[in-house]
């Protein structure tokens, strides 16, 4: 359950006393209470609100009754993480290519284009440690199913073995081109790598030796994924094709021709394993049913190329995706309609976050419990998203997530003052919790104000918009105003203009008052 950070109003209290002290509170996600309640209420007949198919009332008092995502049976939309919790930034900022939760869910690991590993706390979202893991950009991260090992691949085609304490024990030159994806088999005895050299390779994990090469794609292989409990590998390539492979014989079982552009991601459904999601630069996501060997539906709503995919770990029908325009969209497959006449159903996004990032979303992954979604972007930030609290309809209606124009149109001056402390606290987070990285902070002084002597002259005939006469500016030839006529008092003219403007404002306010 995500706890919303609190704020104390700053400034004078209105009683003439000293300014109130701003209370700094960090966002904290504590899922212990919701798990304990879910375990305590596992008997469906124990309490009325825990019966199957029921949902809590939309009241703030039911916040303490919030259960984990695994307990969701009917109201899937309420489990979609659209509420922004925190944004984490490194001191030296680089694009975030990969995000990966540790198997126990206590920390988040990010891989950047500079080859660095950054570890963030999964509950307080503060910085923990940073290390130089690769000499080039990190392109792939994958934990073993047994949670004992981590694999990483980089731009130079190198794959590294890491223990849970980030001790590097082996380095493999897996490919001559960048490694785009790595995936473990269900038993962790083997893993597959996908590369821009157009091939996939199956490796013996224990010996670190290449066993088979899967050849068949005509261009760069951008993604590969091993089925969570079957001997089946899916791959997507720049040749617009999705292929299913038998890892034992290195034979291509079938080829899917649905996409019209580069296939960026392929991911099997983790909880049931019946579905395969593929995304591409044709701005669509296709869901393939392994039981019928047919396309189940097409997910549309993205306005740019789809760059990342993530299945929910406990809700089989929830799929999230990120795009090159920085948007994040969530699809609920339960909403698809039955196809008629052989046509494939089209599903629109259940919830969209149009400006989740300022740039492309390269990677996203759900927390193992499913209550938090993490996204890494080309805008050099890592963002955490949680489920909305009771009564929060537009949880992402913020300046940095909906765009400046949308924010100004939705929020009045009162709303701006309400969100101003949040922006100040984000800046305080970076100052307080990133000092351990021991990296230089580029000095950022105030923007210099250029003297008026460097200002170019106004064009001839420029209308000053009815502005009051200004005194001549020294050092600016051609901009000096003519002297006032004899007997002219500038002070009286200014007072008269201010009084006239005040009368006009009062007159316009009276005209806008509703008639009774």
Automatic annotation (TrEMBL):
Classification via PROSITE patterns: WD_REPEATS_2, WD_REPEATS_REGION
UniProt keyword Metal-binding, yes or no: no
Q: Which UniProt keywords apply?
A: Chromosome partition, mRNA processing, Nucleus, Repeat, WD repeat
Q: Region entry Disordered: which residue ranges?
A: 1-27, 396-433, 475-516
Q: Which domain of life is it from?
A: Eukaryota
Compositional bias (Acidic residues): 423-433
Q: Which GO terms describe its cellular component?
A: chromatin; mRNA cleavage and polyadenylation specificity factor complex
Q: Which SMART domains match?
A: WD40
Query: For bias kind Low complexity, which ranges apply?
Result: 499-516
Compartment(s) where it occurs, according to its Swiss-Prot or TrEMBL record: Nucleus
**Which regions does the record annotate with the repeat WD?**
89-121, 131-163, 172-213, 214-255, 256-298, 299-329, 354-385
Question: CDD domains from the xrefs?
Answer: WD40
InterPro entries for the chain: Pfs2-like (IPR045245), WD40/YVTN_repeat-like_dom_sf (IPR015943), WD40_PAC1 (IPR020472), WD40_repeat_dom_sf (IPR036322), WD40_rpt (IPR001680)
Q: Name one GO biological process term.
A: co-transcriptional mRNA 3'-end processing, cleavage and polyadenylation pathway
Its biological purpose:
Required for 3'-end cleavage and polyadenylation of pre-mRNAs. Also involved in chromosome segregation where it has a role in chromosome attachment to the mitotic spindle.
Name under which the protein is recorded: Polyadenylation factor subunit 2
Species the sequence originates in: Arthrobotrys oligospora (strain ATCC 24927 / CBS 115.81 / DSM 1491)
């Amino acid at each position: 359950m995500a706890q919303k950070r609190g704020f104390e109003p700053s400034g004078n209290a209105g009683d003439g006393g000293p300014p109130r002290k701003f209370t700094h509170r960090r966002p904290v996600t504590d899922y212990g209470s919701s798990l304990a309640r879910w375990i305590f209420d596992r008997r469906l007949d124990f309490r009325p609100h825990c019966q199957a198919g029921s949902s809590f009332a939309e009241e703030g008092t039911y916040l303490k009754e919030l259960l984990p995502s695994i307990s969701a049976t009917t109201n899937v939309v309420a489990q979609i993480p659209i509420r922004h919790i925190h944004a984490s930034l490194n001191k030296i900022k680089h694009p975030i290519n990969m995000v990966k939760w540790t198997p126990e869910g206590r920390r988040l690991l990010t891989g950047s284009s500079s080859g660095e590993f950054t570890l963030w706390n999964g509950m307080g979202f503060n910085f923990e440690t940073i290390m130089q893991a690769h000499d080039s950009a990190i392109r792939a991260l994958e934990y073993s199913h047994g949670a004992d090992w981590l694999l990483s691949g980089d731009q130079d085609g190198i794959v590294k073995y890491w223990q849970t304490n980030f001790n590097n024990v082996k380095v493999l030159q897996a490919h001559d081109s960048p490694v785009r994806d790595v995936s473990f088999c269900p038993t962790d005895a083997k893993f597959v790598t996908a590369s821009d050299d157009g091939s996939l390779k199956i490796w013996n994990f224990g010996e670190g030796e290449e066993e088979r090469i899967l050849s068949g794609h005509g261009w760069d292989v951008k993604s590969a994924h091993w089925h969570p409990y079957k001997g089946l590998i899916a791959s997507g390539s720049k040749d617009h094709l999705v292929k299913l492979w038998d890892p034992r014989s290195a034979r291509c079982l079938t080829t899917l021709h649905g996409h019209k552009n580069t296939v960026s991601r392929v991911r099997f459904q983790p909880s049931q394993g019946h579905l395969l999601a593929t995304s591409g630069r044709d701005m669509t996501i296709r869901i393939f049913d392994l039981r019928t060997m047919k396309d189940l539906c097409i997910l549309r709503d993205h306005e740019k190329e789809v760059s990342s995919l993530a299945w929910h770990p406990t809700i089989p029908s929830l799929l999230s995706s990120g795009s090159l325009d920085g948007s994040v969209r969530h699809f609920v497959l339960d909403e698809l309609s039955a196809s008629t006449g052989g046509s494939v159903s089209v599903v629109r996004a259940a919830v969209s976050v149009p400006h989740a990032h300022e740039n492309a979303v390269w990677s996203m992954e759900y927390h193992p419990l499913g209550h938090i979604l993490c996204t890494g972007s080309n805008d050099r930030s890592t963002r955490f998203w949680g489920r909305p609290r009771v009564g929060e309809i537009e949880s992402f209606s913020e300046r940095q997530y909906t765009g400046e124009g949308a924010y100004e149109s939705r929020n009045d001056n009162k709303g701006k003052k309400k969100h101003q402390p949040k922006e100040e606290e984000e800046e305080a987070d970076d100052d307080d919790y990133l000092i351990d990285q021991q990296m230089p902070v580029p000095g950022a002084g105030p923007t210099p104000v250029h003297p008026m002597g460097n200002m170019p002259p106004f064009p001839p005939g420029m209308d000053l918009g009815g502005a009051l006469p200004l005194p001549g500016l020294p050092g600016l030839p051609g901009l000096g105003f003519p002297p006032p006529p004899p007997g002219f008092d500038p002070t009286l003219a200014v007072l008269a203009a201010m009084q006239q403007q005040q009368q006009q404002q009062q007159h316009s306010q009276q005209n806008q008052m509703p008639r009774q």
